[in-house]
């Protein structure tokens, strides 16, 4: 009766232990899923950073750089100090607009000289198409223009006003070009328009340096502003890269802790497990075999995975190393399309099931594999000699 009671208590303990292990497994699985989700998001941010620096490294003209920044306006909004950049841009535009208004005011003196000329009267008001019976006027002239319309646009405050002095200059030319286009070369209106246009062009050439100076100044201010935004973007992406590096490191450390937890919860490998693991190692490709040896070297400083001749003692490896090897070999062999029985199934109590290498496997085996096989054989021979003695 006493013995039966002890057995019952033992069974309850085992059942409770299994329940605890199941909870631990679920918790680890959830943590791994969370890590994968986090890593996917980090990868997206890494891609954004790589794309940013790729674009920055390409040699682009100032116009293409400007179009790039306009294209990425939504991303620019997220850089530090973006609101400050917006405010500075608004102030810069307002100041430039005032300077341009002053230039247009100065340009008004040229217009007065032209409009006060004795031959300017035909161009002061819109052409009276109906009154003069010019039925084909709108067929010849696409966009009528006159000085009263120009004056109204210069004085407008409803958004239709001129924004640049070159726009006024273009309309002044249009007034005379329309008259020259519609009227015969020898007509008075044509000669008057041609004469006034020549006078206007002379005065415009004298005035032009002021315009080009302002345009150059505005272009330099715009370039400086774009450079400021670019630097802010670079600083933001540099900080993002540092933060990403830290987050990736933390994720890697967390994953490493989970690996250690899993390994610690694994049962101790039996002699049969180790023997089958040794057999499975011989089935690896040369590349995967080198990776497996690197796993051993990570936890065994005295083991040189790159040595010409390797002596691998399975029994001398820690449980952590053995289980790492098992999981690595299992994944590798499954990648070859081999049966899981080569290295065992955890559902079958975790025991490894020995399987003979196929002819194809023997053909693939490299010199490196043979070295491992020989190393395993030497280790087994030494062990048998110790046991017999």
List descriptors.
389 residues; mainly alpha; 74% helix; 0% strand
What layout of secondary structure does this protein have?
Blueprint lengths: L1 H56 L4 H10 L1 H4 L5 H34 L13 H4 L4 H4 L6 H9 L9 H18 L5 H78 L5 H11 L4 H13 L20 H17 L23 H6 L2 H22 L1
Helix pairs in contact: 1-9, 4-9, 8-9, 10-12, 11-12
Structural features, described:
Residues 25-52, 211-261 form a coiled coil. This protein has helices at residues 2-57, 62-71, 73-76, 82-115, 129-132, 137-140, 147-155, 165-182, 188-265, 271-281, 286-298, 319-335, 359-364, 367-388. By secondary structure, the protein is mainly alpha-helical. The radius of gyration is 43 Å and the shape is rod-shaped.
- Approximate strand percentage: under 5%
Euclidean distance between termini CA atoms: 46 Å
Structural class comes to mainly alpha
Find the count of extended strands (DSSP E, 2+ residues). 0
Helix content: over 70%
Low-pLDDT ranges:
1-9, 59-72, 345-368
Report the mean per-residue pLDDT as an integer: 76
Using only C-alpha atoms, the radius of gyration works out to: 43 Å
User: Helical element count?
Assistant: 14
The profile of the biggest β sheet is: none
Order of helices and strands: HHHHHHHHHHHHHH
Shape type: rod-shaped
Protein name: Transcription factor GTE6
Domain NET: 259-340
Region (Disordered): 346-367
Pfam families: BET, Bromodomain
């Amino acid at each position: 009766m006493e013995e039966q009671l002890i057995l019952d208590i033992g069974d309850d303990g085992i059942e409770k232990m299994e329940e605890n292990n199941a909870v631990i497994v679920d918790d680890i699985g959830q943590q791994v899923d969370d890590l994968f989700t986090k890593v996917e998001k980090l990868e997206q941010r890494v891609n954004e950073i790589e794309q940013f620096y790729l674009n920055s490294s390409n040699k682009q003209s100032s116009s293409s750089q400007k179009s790039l920044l306009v294209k990425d306006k939504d991303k620019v909004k997220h850089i530090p100090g973006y609101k400050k950049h917006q405010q500075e841009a608004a102030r810069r535009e307002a100041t430039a607009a005032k300077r341009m208004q002053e230039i247009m005011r100065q340009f008004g003196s040229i217009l007065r000289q032209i409009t006060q000329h004795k031959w300017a009267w035909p161009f002061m008001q819109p052409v009276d198409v109906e009154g003069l019976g010019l039925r084909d006027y709108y067929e010849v002239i696409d966009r009528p223009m006159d000085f009263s319309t120009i004056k109204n646009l210069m004085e407008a405050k409803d958004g239709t006003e001129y924004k640049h002095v070159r726009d006024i200059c273009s309309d002044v030319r249009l007034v005379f070009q329309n008259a020259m286009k519609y009227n015969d070369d020898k007509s008075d209106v044509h000669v008057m328009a041609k004469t006034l246009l020549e006078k206007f062009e002379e005065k415009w050439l004298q005035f032009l340096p002021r315009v080009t100076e302002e345009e150059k100044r505005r272009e330099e201010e715009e370039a400086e502003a774009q450079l400021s935004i670019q630097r802010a973007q670079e600083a933001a992406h540099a900080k993002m890269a540092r933060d990403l590096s830290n987050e990736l490191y933390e994720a890697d450390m967390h994953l490493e802790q989970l690996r250690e937890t899993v390994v610690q919860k694994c049962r101790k490998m039996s002699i049969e497990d180790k023997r089958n693991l040794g057999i499975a190692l011989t089935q690896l490709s040369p590349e995967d075999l080198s990776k497996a040896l690197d796993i051993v070297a990570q936890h065994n400083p005295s083991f040189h995975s790159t040595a010409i001749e390797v002596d691998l003692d399975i029994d001398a490896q820690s449980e952590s190393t053995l289980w790492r090897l098992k999981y690595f070999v299992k994944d590798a062999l499954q990648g070859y399309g081999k049966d899981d029985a080569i290295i065992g199934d955890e559902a079958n109590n975790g025991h490894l099931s020995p399987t003979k290498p196929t002819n194809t496997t023997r053909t693939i085996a490299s010199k490196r594999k043979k070295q491992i096989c020989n190393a395993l054989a030497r280790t087994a021979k030494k062990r048998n000699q110790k046991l017999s003695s």
